[in-house]
Design brief:
- GO terms for molecular function: heme binding; metal ion binding; peroxidase activity.
- Keywords: Heme, Iron, Metal-binding, Oxidoreductase, Peroxidase.
- This is Plant heme peroxidase family profile domain-containing protein.
- Helix content is about 45%, strand content about 5%.
- It is mainly alpha-helical.
- It has three domains: about 160 residues, Peroxidase, domain 1 (Orthogonal Bundle), CATH 1.10.520.10; about 120 residues, Orthogonal Bundle (Peroxidase, domain 1); about 110 residues, Peroxidase, domain 2.
- The strands form three sheets. It has a three-stranded antiparallel sheet with strand order 4-5-6. Strands 1-7 form a two-stranded parallel sheet.
- Helix 9 crosses helix 10.
- The longest helix is centred in the middle third of the chain and has 16 residues.
- The chain is globular.
């Protein structure tokens, strides 16, 4: 069972989850203590309602981006710490942040409702919710950002990208944060949302024809539309399409002028899932620049799961959920495995016949998932099955964290990877050998609940 759920980076099972190529090695090694008293599930629901009511997801993304994007990996300065909340001076007055008072104002009632949460955590989570509501990837959120104590902690102006500059400027800005060319292009895809306003940047117009939808249209348009240099109504240089309905900035066009950037533009234009995966990795890295790792709240999670199992008698279905999450792994293609793909309830693995009824288990664990946003859903499902087994009188098993959740339903694997109860020995070997299981593991795993 341990090998089925395992997330040891040296094993084949952990490699079924895409590694993050943008992880910042400059993160602080100090550990913060996790606080479970902030109701992250409620906050997420309030943010979802706000975004749906106000269609404000583009500006919420921009707020978090500009809060985090000031980070300098060498000096360890800048980064996500809510410095723009000092509205009279400092970062709030930088030219790149013009108009972001609107976003801060929209979020202020939620901050007042949940005062123990930092501004930086709120702004980061708001951007994640905004992207998800607009059709983008479902990205992880890890709390732990501390707010700047005063405006004196603002960094100098000029750390954010200049829209009138080309490839070298982009590299200077993003490399300073610890990102690479792939991350630069993936993050630029955030321009699939929103539009420019003359009263803020001087530029005008949307990047795409559907500025409230998060998809890969930005990259398709960069490659497929004819762009002509012109200017905005205020005289700022920018590119227009043939119909003068959408625009691109000079920094956008740099992505197809530079051959190293262009290969990623071509990849994302052809493969939206690749864009979503890379964007999720890069944006998560951006939002976590410089924040300390949290000590895993495993004792707290264990207590919550033990209470749940004792009250609901749900150990069998929790074990089945983790089994069916992990049991899709294919060692040859390195696909499937424990990554909580079933949480997308409208399609994909949650709709597979073998997973019928597992919505009950997911629902039972959702309050725990909401309570601990810094832990992947796949880790919580796996850990819950370990705890449930122990509570039921089974063996005490070691647990290793590290599973990464899928970000879109299309990362689900095809139906048919789990055992068919009507089949015999040859079928069982096909299924379990695909996972690199031995005959002895095949026999004892057959005792699991189905």
């Amino acid at each position: 069972f341990r090998s089925l759920l395992k997330s040891d980076p040296s094993s084949s099972l952990i490699r079924s989850s895409m590694p993050c190529p943008y992880s910042a090695a400059h993160h602080s090694t100090a550990a913060a203590v996790f606080s479970g008293d902030i109701p992250w599930g409620e906050i997420r629901r309030d943010l979802t309602a706000l975004v749906k009511e106000k269609n404000c997801h583009p500006i919420l993304v921009r707020l978090a981006w500009h809060d985090a994007g000031t980070y300098d990996k060498d000096s360890k300065s800048g980064g996500p710490r809510g410095c723009q909340r000092f509205s009279e001076a400092g970062e709030a007055t930088h030219a790149a942040n013009a108009g972001l008072g609107i976003a801060r104002g929209l979020l202020e009632p939620i901050k007042a409702k949940y005062p123990s949460m930092s501004y930086a955590d709120l702004w980061a989570l708001a951007s994640i919710v905004g992207i998800e509501v607009s059709g983008g990837p479902a990205m992880p959120f890890r709390p732990g950002r501390s707010d700047a104590a005063s405006v004196d902690e603002s960094v100098e102006d000029g750390r954010l990208p200049d829209a009138t500059q080309g490839p070298q400027h982009l590299r200077d800005v993003f490399y300073r944060m610890g990102l690479d060319d792939r991350g630069i292009v993936a993050l630029s895809g955030a321009h699939t949302l929103g539009r420019c306003h003359t009263d803020r940047s001087g530029f005008e117009g949307p990047w795409t024809e559907k500025p409230l939808v998060f998809d890969n249209t930005y990259f398709k348009d960069l490659l497929n539309k004819t762009w002509t240099m012109g200017e905005s109504s205020t005289g700022q240089p920018q590119y227009w399409d043939e119909k003068k309905e959408t625009m691109m900035l000079i920094s956008d066009m740099a992505l197809i002028e530079d051959p190293e950037f262009k290969k990623y533009v071509e990849l994302y234009a052809a493969d939206e899932q690749a864009f979503f995966s890379d964007f999720s990795n890069a944006f998560t890295t951006l939002l976590e620049l410089g924040i300390p790792e949290l000590e895993g709240p495993w004792d707290q999670i264990r207590a919550d799961v033990e209470k749940l199992v004792t009250e609901k008698g749900c150990a069998p279905i929790l074990v089945r959920l983790a089994w069916h999450d992990a049991g899709t792994y294919d060692s040859k293609s390195n696909t499937g495995g424990p990554r909580a793909a079933q949480r997308f309830t409208e399609s994909g693995e949650s709709t597979h016949a073998a997973n019928a009824g597992l919505d009950i288990a997911r629902g039972l664990l959702q309050p725990i998932v909401d309570k601990y946003p810094g832990v992947s859903v796949a880790d919580i499902w796996a850990f819950a099955s370990v705890v449930a087994t122990e509570v039921s009188g089974g063996p005490k098993m070691p647990f290793q964290k590290g599973r990464k959740d899928t970000v879109v339903a299309t990362q689900s694997v095809e139906d048919g990877r789990l055992p068919d109860a009507t089949q015999g020995a040859a079928h069982l070997r096909d299924v379990f050998y695909r996972q690199m299981s031995t005959v002895s593991q095949l026999v004892w795993r057959s005792s699991f609940p189905v």
